[in-house]
Amino acid sequence: MRETTLQKKSKAFAVRIIKMYQYLCDERHEFVLSKQVLRSGTSIGANVREAKRAQSRPDFYAKLFIALKEAEETEYWLELLAETEFVSQNMYESIYADCEEIIKLLVSSTKTIKEGKR
User: Fold this and answer.
1) CB 13 within 8 A of CB 41
2) At what angle do helices 57-83 and 5-26 cross, to 10 degrees?
3) Buried b vs exposed e over 82-115: b needs ≥16 C-beta within 10 Å?
4) Backbone angles phi, psi at 28, to 5 degrees
5) What is the 3-class SS of the chain, one letter each residue?
6) To bridge 40 with a disulfide, which of 3, 55, 74, 107 should be the other Cys (CB 3.0-4.6 Å)?
């Protein structure tokens, strides 16, 4: 089965989140917010991957919607990390833009499924 754009982007995003987590722990000695963003940021791709083997259309929708909620949560943690200056503005803008792109893909996908077009 071919990997979709959403699968590729959410996995690449998870890798970026893991690297940011390592940076936050090793360089900034930040362990609380970093763990939160690690959990939600890697969960996006995990749920997208789970959707690949959904048992039904409602199950597929539910997995993608969970991924969307995790992406929204990730944006929140990223905002906190930026506002508390644990990450630079450049790092924040770059990873936040990736998260926004994934959210747009997930919103589009869930709308399409809900409208019965898939």
Assistant:
1) yes
2) 30
3) beeebbeeebbeebbebbeebbebbeebbeebee
4) -105, -10
5) CCCCHHHHHHHHHHHHHHHHHHHHHHCCCCCHHHHHHHHHHHHHHHHHHHHCCCCCHHHHHHHHHHHHHHHHHHHHHHHHHHHCCCCCHHHHHHHHHHHHHHHHHHHHHHHHHHCCCC
6) 74
Whether the CB-CB separation of 95 and 75 falls below 8 Å is answered with no
Structure tokens belonging to residue 57: 């259309």
What's the pLDDT tens digit per position in 2-32? Answer: 889 999 999 999 999 999 999 999 999 999 9
State both tokens at 89: 């503005």
Radius of gyration (Cα) for the chain, nearest Å?
15
pLDDT of residue 104: 98
